Amino acid sequence: MQESWALLTTLIAVLAISLLFLGMERSRLSAREVAAIAVLATLSAVGRVTTGIVLCLQPTMFLVIITGFVMGTRAGFLVGAITPLVSNFLIGQGPWTPWQMLAWGLTGASAAWLKYLYPRAGERVLIVFCLFWGYLYGWLMNIWFWSVFVHPLTWQSFLVTCVASLGFDSVRALGNGLFCAVLGPGVMKILLRYRRKVHVSWLPHKE
């Protein structure tokens, strides 16, 4: 039964990430947008590999959030989802990778939704958002860990799993907030400048 739940959660993550990638693939991306996503995903993956050993204290999630906030849902999701896929070739691939891709992708996409719902969101709002995702990412990954390694599968055992990861989640959240406070304004200016250069308006097709 435990193995069935583990397989089911992995399949759900794979299906979700596949559907989201399919939806993104159908959208129009200019060559410059693709180049920007590739560069940002590479920087994000490198940041995760080089700093990930320091107790989850890394600039990666902050960069994914800023990307989504400035460049939109597609860029945020793709940079987020590609980051663990690439970095795990060095850190280690496994059944956790689809869950990481889904969680990181949602991190970037949700930052774009924040911009849409709250256009005037400033530095303080982004810092709080980064703090929030430091914990939410941990809770999402706990679903995979809980379904694979914890027995019995109950709400009580899931709560215990979340409490056990609270220390790591707190370090990640504080790191996100710190990187956002220190590097956020500068990185946002760079991405805003680049977005203006790559923005493409598609005219309606005429028969």
Molecular structure report:
Helix 3 (60-71) packs across helix 5. With 207 residues, the chain is an all-alpha fold. The protein starts with a helix and ends in a 9-residue tail after the last helix. Helices cover 81% and strands 0% of the residues. The protein has helices at 2-25, 31-51, 60-71, 73-91, 97-117, 123-149, 155-164, 166-198.
Describe this structure in a few short sentences.
The model is unreliable at 200-207 (pLDDT under 50). With 207 residues, the chain is an all-alpha fold. It has eight helices and no strands.
Q: What keyword list fits this structure?
A:
mainly alpha; Arp2/3 complex 21 kDa subunit ARPC3; transmembrane helix; transmembrane transporter activity
How much strand content do the residues show?
Answer: under 5%
| Global morphology | globular
Annotated CATH topology:
Arp2/3 complex 21 kDa subunit ARPC3
Residues in helix, %: over 70%
The biggest beta sheet reads: none
Strand tally, please? Answer: 0
Uncertain segments are 200-207
Query: For the residues shown, what is the average pLDDT?
Result: 83
User: What is the H/E string?
Assistant: HHHHHHHH
Q: Give the helix/strand class.
A: mainly alpha
C-alpha Rg, in Å? 18 Å
The CATH architecture = Orthogonal Bundle
Our measurement of the CA-to-CA distance between the termini, rounded to an integer number of angstroms, reads: 57 Å
CATH C-level name? Mainly Alpha
The figure for the number of domains is 1
Keywords: Membrane, Transmembrane, Transmembrane helix
Protein name: Membrane protein
GO molecular function, one term: transmembrane transporter activity
Transmembrane segments: 5-22, 34-55, 62-87, 99-118, 125-146, 173-192
